[in-house]
Amino acid sequence: MSHPLLDLPPLTAERFASIERRVAALLRTEHDVVITQGEALLPLEGCIRGGARPGSTALNVVTGPYGQTFGNWLRDAGAAVVDLEAPFHAAATARDVERALADHPEIDFVSLVHAEAATGNTNPVAEIGEVVRAHGALFMVDAVASVAAEPLLVDAWGVDLCVIGAQKAMGGPAGVSAVSVSERAWQRLADNPAAPRRSYLSLLDWKERWIDAGRRALPHAPAQLEMLALEACLERIEESGLDAVVARHRAAAAATRAGAAALAGAVEPYVHRDEDAAPVATTLRTLDGIAADALVADALALEPGLPLVAGGGALAKEMIRVNHYGRDADPAAVVRTLRALAGALGADPDPAVAAAEAAWQG
User: Fold this and answer.
1) Does residue 114 contact residue 121 with C-beta atoms inside 8 Å?
2) What is the C-alpha to C-alpha distance for residues 134 and 274, in angstroms, rounded to an integer?
3) How many CA atoms lie within 13 A of 143 on its CB side?
4) N or C: which end of the chain has fewer CB within 10 A?
5) What's residue 167's pLDDT?
6) For strand 57-62 and strand 177-181, is the pairing parallel, antiparallel, or unpaired?
7) What is the per-residue pLDDT across 106-152, written as a single tens digit (0 to 9) for each?
8) Residues 104 and 173 in one domain
9) What is the count of structural domains for the chain?
């Protein structure tokens, strides 16, 4: 029996290339875009292992767990690493980066996470990019959690390697990702004898076998369902308008922060300043000895399926994360989450709901 998700015609090279062009438009870039057939950790590791090597020095900006992961990969690739750590309740600043570059003029690679969904903060990529560009280092940005949730201007901000995934604000699948690669980055990878080659981590293989070959024949069979889903969510963003999608995520973050502040002093925003808060997820700190993981469990018991999780590791007892990306960047989803948290706390939900609704409108 035929099935629409199984009996599909082959994905042509022309269609694959057209999806690449739509990703490039989303990122506001003229750089080459490579769509990688796997979760975004694939191109992130490929970028780092291609851009770092023994004898190089990298500045790794750490504002959450992914920044910590990048530092491990950079060291494993043989680079000397300068970690610039910002508190998880805040963001890195261009001035911080400028000082680090001045203290270590040998730095030739900078890695940064735009928005850390796990800690709920976002970093000022435009300002940091200006500093990195003036220094002359290669600039890699993880924009998996920020793409479609906040402005992302790859070329204008001087980003050489920009990795995205579709599973958060784009509202798409987790099994496909993409990276834009500047000419400087291609040269850096080509000049690195340790860069992955003939490997699933290799961006150079895509350049040689796909881009330089004129995009006429795909180097291997694509993940077809994921590619079609990526195409569909790009189409949905184009139809809604990127500005409207970004505004919806910002409104969700503002509403969640406002509603949480009205929850009878039981929780407070984990990220202190509004401008440092990521539009894809709001992290909350529990107060008065309330265990975050227990509070989340109680809220989910009242309203299963909410986009609500406790923090990871050591943060499980004090951090709650409200994910409001994709379809959950929606006032009804925010209100349901606040009502469930209020119910788990034994608090009146009406002040939180009213504050959230006012913030969404305002």
Assistant:
1) no
2) 28
3) 28
4) N
5) 96
6) unpaired
7) 999 999 999 999 999 999 999 999 999 999 999 999 999 999 999 99
8) yes
9) 2
DSSP classification of residue 272: S
Question: What pLDDT, on a 0 to 100 scale, did the predictor assign at position 8?
Answer: 81
CA-based end-to-end distance of the chain:
52
Q: Both 168 and 275 in a single domain?
A: no
Question: How many alpha carbons lie under 13 Å from residue 320 in its C-beta half-sphere?
Answer: 31
331 shares a domain with 247: yes
Q: Which of 55, 48, 58, 50 is nearest to 195 (CA)?
A: 50
Task: For residue 239, give every residue at least 6 positions away whose Cβ sits within 8 Å of its Cβ, in sequence order, or none.
Answer: none
Give the range of the structural domain holding residue 197, as residue numbers without chain letter: 13-239
Asked whether the beta carbons of 90 and 121 are under 8 A apart, the reply is yes
Instruction: Please give the full DSSP string across 242-300, using - where no structure is assigned.
Output: HHHHHHHHHHHHHHHHHHHHTSTTSEEESSSSGGGB-SSEEEEEE-TT--HHHHHHHHH
**Are 54 and 105 within one domain?**
yes
Q: How confident is the model at residue 1 (pLDDT cuts 50, 70, 90)?
A: low
User: Which residues, including other chains, have CB under 8 Å from residue 341's CB and lie 6 or more apart?
Assistant: 260, 263, 267, 295, 299, 308, 320, 352
- Dump pLDDT digits (tens) for 277-307: 999 999 999 999 999 999 999 999 999 999 9
| Amino acid (1-letter code) at residue 39 | E
57-99 confidence digits (pLDDT tens): 999 999 998 889 999 999 999 999 999 999 999 999 999 999 9
Q: Does 92 map to a domain?
A: yes
| 8 A C-beta contact, residue 70 and residue 100 | no
Helix (H, G, I), strand (E, B) or coil at 304: coil
Q: Residue 5 — very low, low, confident or very high, per pLDDT cuts 50/70/90?
A: low
Q: Which residues have a Cβ under 8 Å from the Cβ of 297 and sit 6 or more positions away?
A: none
- The whole-angstrom distance between residue 104's C-alpha and the CA centroid of its chain comes to 27
Task: Give the model confidence (pLDDT) of 301-312 as tens digits.
Answer: 999 999 999 998
**Domain contains 7:** no
